[in-house]
Amino acid sequence: MKFSSLILLSLSMFSYVSCSTEISHKIELCGRAVITAESTKSVGNGLDFTNYILGEESKRDILLSPLYLGGDLNAVRAVFENFFPHEKLNVTENVQEDVLGNEIGTYFTFYSKSQEDLIIFQNEMSKRGVELGLKSESQSQCAPGLVNISVLKLDPKEFDGSVVTNLSKGHVLGLDKISNHVKSLDSKNTTPVAAINGGYFVINNEQGYLGDPAGISVIGGRLVSEAVRGRPALLIHNGSRISFNVLEEVTTEAFIINAGKKINLLGINRQLGSIFNCGLNEGEFTFVSHDSVCSINNDLVIYDRDFGEVDVVISTSSAYAIIDENGMVLSSNDAIDGILPTGYYLLAAIGKRYVEVIDNLRGKVEYSWNVYSHGKKVPIDENTYLINGGPTLIQDGVIQYSRFKKEGWNTVDIISAESSVDERDGLTLSPESTKRANFYKGWLLTRHPRTAVGIDSEGNAYFAVVYGRNPLYSDGISVPELAQFFHSLGIQKAINLDGGGSSTMYLDGKLTGIPSDSNGERNVAEAIIISSK
Predict the structure, then answer these.
(1) Which residue blocks in 361-499 are alpha helix, DSSP H?
(2) What is the sign of the dihedral through the CA atoms of 110, 112, 118 and 124?
(3) What mean pLDDT is predicted for residues 481-503?
(4) Contact at 8 Å (CB) between 508 and 532?
(5) What is the pTM of this model?
(6) What is the radius of gyration, based on Cα positions, of the chain?
(7) Number of H helices and number of E strands within the chain?
(8) What is the pLDDT of residues 141-166, one digit of tens each?
(9) 89-120 b/e (C-beta count within 10 Å ≥ 16 → b)
């Protein structure tokens, strides 16, 4: 990745910061070292909040083309050449590289002093079959622009509370605002101080059940959702002293034992036949592809009380069995509607292979699972929380660009995986020949709101939310820029979480910034909530 632009940093302080200290850090972004000042406020024992404003406002608009390759590139060049010279516009042809310096396509940028001229040209090109996006130049990686970052630092040596993850309304099904996640815990004899959005999740019915975590979720020692094979996860453990870790190469193993036979399960609390982000533990879809859906015809999934009302599963499965707290299969006359009782499970299947498994269940059924990182079993107890994310930003103090592809941010289309993105995030997927490369550029290398967690050498955790998509307030940050920002703070381990309109930090009863969605807070599946005693 080539970085050439200098991003300047300036001091900013939110109005509610009543006492602060100014600290200088050497921040490196886009290959340039700059000095910044920070305003920091203590918000509790072991908790310090810092707000950063990077850069300066940029009002320059541009027209941006998608990435092109081969014949598509030559065809669009011909369209532009036939229309030019155009005295009011300038154009540059740019080679796009991935984070490792490999060429993935070519795109065109059009500049003009007048937005009106850009719009006229955009409409003329659209008539000729070439779609150009009108954007602020500040959305481009390393360009001038504002970047507003909220960072909450937690020192385990001083902190006397807990950090937990929370499902919307206590179940997999459904979504809710971060502020409502906080309120749901506030009624459970805890005092939430802060919260941020958590991992990726199913955002529409084409991907699966709305709210299903798109990767591993462990809440209070319970495995709520299986891992996307080989992806990272944030581990939180509320022991005598709270601790944090970023686990790599995470996999899960879930199985039942019946009549002396071990039967592997393919999913936990997700929709039969649909795997969002792919990455099954076995079979055809072990590869990972972010914001893609892999579909299978033979599937075996287990559901528990954490799922919510199971009627939707029963009505769509080819076969199912309800297992009581003693491991016994109930008769069809004992069918349960609504939420499963504690200790009960629903085993559901589609496809001949797994329908036969359910039909042949005899006697006691034992359910078990394990979590692994790099093939080693991860100890789990009631104080353990795991939340999905990716890509890995930093490990052992080194930025992990080489892991991005393996963790699902690839530049080549996978025929058996169907792209599925949130339209609110404005990602370009055309032309067809470079759909995945355009997704890669738009998702990874363009500035968006982001949420991430870093850990330093002393075990301190840094919860970061970057606001964006508002050029007058904050443009957001690219993933490489986010990794470099953390690296400049001396972070040893860091993981990217869900971003875009989900990115929100809630502190002392209000938001620390402006979410990117026009209607305010986006509903999310999981929240990370920091509470005092």
Answers:
(1) 435-444, 479-488
(2) negative
(3) 96
(4) no
(5) 0.91
(6) 24
(7) 7, 34
(8) 988 888 899 999 999 999 999 999 99
(9) bebeeeebebbeeeebbbbbbbbbeeeebbee
